[in-house]
Design brief:
three-stranded antiparallel β-sheet; Reverse transcriptase/retrotransposon-derived protein RNase H-like domain-containing protein; DNA/RNA_pol_sf; flat; RT_RNaseH_2; 2 helices
Amino acid sequence: ACQNSFETLRQRLIEAPIISYPRFDQPFILQLDASDVGLSAILAQKLIDQDGKAREHVIGYASRTLSASERKYSPTEREC
């Protein structure tokens, strides 16, 4: 049951309208985070929707776990 829920959530996170195509005439937003065990990033853009409201649209997600040696880095080094 948990695996099915995870797969459903994962699939929905990569389907439109969740993932948008980049608009190269608009600025990008890059959000980064580092924890003691991993790194994550979100690339997005703030675009005007059909209703005229500006909303953040995700272009892509990325994440990975840190190696044993990378876990020894300081928080500042992990986020560089």
